[in-house]
Amino acid sequence: MKKSLPRLDSKFVVITISVLLLLYFIVLPLLVLIYDSLFIDGVFDISNYKDVYGKKVNWRALTNTVQLSLIVMVASVIVTFPLAWLVGRTDLPGKKTFRTILVASYMIPPYVGAIAWVQLLNPSVGYLNDFFKFIFGLSKAPFDIYTMGGLAWVLTLFYSPFAFITISRAMEKMDPTLEEAARISGSSPLKTLWDVTLPLMMPSIVAGGLLVFIAAASCFGIPAIVGMPGNIEVMTTRIVTFLYMGDDKGIRDATALAVSMMIVANGLLMFMSWMLSHKDYTTISGKSTRPNMVELGKWKWPAFAVVAGYAFIAVILPLTSIVVTSFLVSMSKGLALDNFGIDAWIPVITSSQYMESVWRSIGYGIVAACIGTVLALFVAYLSVKTNVTGRSIPDLLVVLGGATPSIVIALALIITFSGNYGLNLYSTMWILIVSYLVKYMTMSVRTIAASLSQVHISLEEAALSSGASWIRTCKDIIMPLVAPSIVAGWFLIFMPSFYELTMSNLLYGSDTKSLGVLLYELQTYADTQNASVLSVIILLIVLIGNIILNKVTKGKVSI
Amino acid sequence: MAELKLHHIYKRFGNVTAVGDFNIDVADGEFISFLGPSGCGKTTTLRLIAGFEKPTEGIITIGGTEISNAEKGVFLAPEKRGIGMVFQSYAVWPHMNVVDNVGYPLKIQNVSKEERLQRVMKMLELVHLKEYAERFPNQLSGGQQQRVALARALVAQPSLLLLDEPLSNLDAKLRESMRFEISAIQKELGITVIYVTHDQSEAMTMSDRIVVMSMGKVQQIGRPYEIYTQPANQMVADFIGLVNFIPATAKGDRIFVNGHETLSFPNPKKLAGDAVIAVRPENITISKTGGMVEGVMNHRFYMGDSVDYRVKVKDQIIRVIQKGAVYGTYHDGETVYLDFDNVMSFAKEE
Prior knowledge:
The complex is a heterodimer. By secondary structure, chain A is mostly helical. Chain A has helices at 4-38, 47-54, 56-89, 95-104, 110-121, 127-136, 148-173, 176-184, 189-218, 221-227, 235-245, 248-279, 300-326, 345-350, 352-385, 393-403, 406-416, 429-454, 457-465, 470-498, 502-507, 515-524, 528-553; strands at 39-40, 43-44.
């Protein structure tokens, strides 16, 4: 008992410090944001909201956002459920490869996807449009990416992996004998899918759908690149436009929009976790036999063709487009053999301005990942391994940060850390790093906590009773067992921070322009080739990161 | 009726033969157990009968109808076989209440709602769950979920009931009482049962016949008494009950215990060369005065209804169990004598 007393104290100190840090950097900015949207010069006044939603353009942005997110959510679920089922529960040929490809689009930065689809489907020189014109002898391009349809298309392709991952994970966890029991009761495979599989999957389907809805509604890169040229505004682009105005009124309008977004997003996520905790059937499973794969029979190859076609359109086509564009000598000459070369690469690689942004973003990613992993380790350890009162508060605060749309975080940080509340981080690298931490630490905490919770307390007790001190136990028993998850947690912060656009775009200063911002500027100034070269560089770094991650965690965690 | 026949059934997964040449004719109303260590192919065989796996070779018939014939490419889907099945994990659907779970097979058959409810209630009465009709699975204990699974498997009056280690997730007391309950229900309904288990006492108490399996092969098929008293080989003798194996050599019509040239037993199987003598611990009598072999008391374990002795004979430890013995009769290190009864003999297995 003597030994445990100072330990409890150090735990208490750690818990206090981490709670204070998280309160200051996550909760305070969000409260300031809400306060600013409701009080003008200290007086309660909802005229902000009346003003903002009184204007047609804002109202239009809201309805566009809701409409788009709903379409994207429904489309994602309709596309992903059969995909998850085919890949997870049937004898589909090549399903492991498909799984990797379908999850892979999750690690492509959304704005890179947007750039790719603009290259493929823009009405004047889109590769695919040209191809269709050539094949069918059309005089006019059949597709226009700069429409609601085009926006929904790109959003669906890049956010459906959220649904795919959620649904297929639940499908893998489901006890297959639940389906077999229906078969032996006389029900056909299709009726089993309807009577048993679908109802059991419903909570996960709804959860996956909501994740897609929130992601699509919070996305800035895709609407900015695909929507803006067609004058389609959504909430995030409106907020940015207001902020670009730079005056007080602009900021106030932006806060009103941001607070509405935050409430919807956090509300939906709260509903989701409540629902999953009450109706998650998938965790109920006994020891089960090897899952019985449904034999597709004569549908095997048609199904293969459909899944392969989807994987080609969703992942391979846009990536190819980006890579090919980066190696074109001249954009105007189109796809011809003598038009390929590394001409576009040389000015990018030799440009000190471009390369500085690349190194800067890598640096910010590393700093954010290192700080974030240490914090995540504390937070995860407190919530999983101790029984101190309030141990899960830091965890909840981190989840709150991760659940808040990026644009809302950025705005809240701008308002709060311009000097009024103790710190002035404006235009420094630290405001970027804080924003990355607020947004991405949650994934890291989840990964480390999951791994820590698998280290049963008896393993620690066995070490203690073998005579090891608590510190020694941490070093010899706990750390080796959770080390892969710590590496994974590091990359889960590094990678999205490294290519982050939405928050960086609002928070960067003249000396802190990140890679995402640079790429976005190049794309908006119609310098597609340099944008493609930088995109390929990003993709390469993300790919390398993922390979390391896969090696370290033996395929258990990837982005 | 529901005779079940498996003829020359093989199941291979790649290069691995999970089931090799399985043959059995099960009579109508018979209770058959598949018994063996994990990985012996018993569950795979059950899944072949259910239709969740396709045999690589062989023919399965139920009541004279071929439901699976690998040569002719006949394979009836599980839902068309009219079989009831209880799974190890219960597989009670968590999104349906007890009535809906049990009534599901009838719903598939388009049985009217009134009749369905009536038959479901009859089943629930049979498994003593009538009061739980409206409950959801998460409000039931493991044993109750087990009964729901049993009622669901029986409600459509299948001619064949398959049970896949149904009791292995229950605690010891409940396991024993469920054992007798399943037996009683089987007798009452006269249904043919295939019961997969790795627990020999379950197989012994419930079955008409036991199929002992190991490494994908049937080792022996027989009534519990035969399996226990006349095991077909060393593996069966070892897996069923406790046994001492003693190296021996067969010469002519006698088998000589190695190292005890004067001690020999009859050789009814006409073995030759290296052999093994097997004797169960309860078939050995221990005494202070004299017997077939001399040994030294090594250890004693008091079991309540019996004492479990370890006696060192030359360099082998022999296990002896004496019912109703008194712990203090012998002392460790004391010289004792053993007499063997019901001695079995086997050819030496590698």
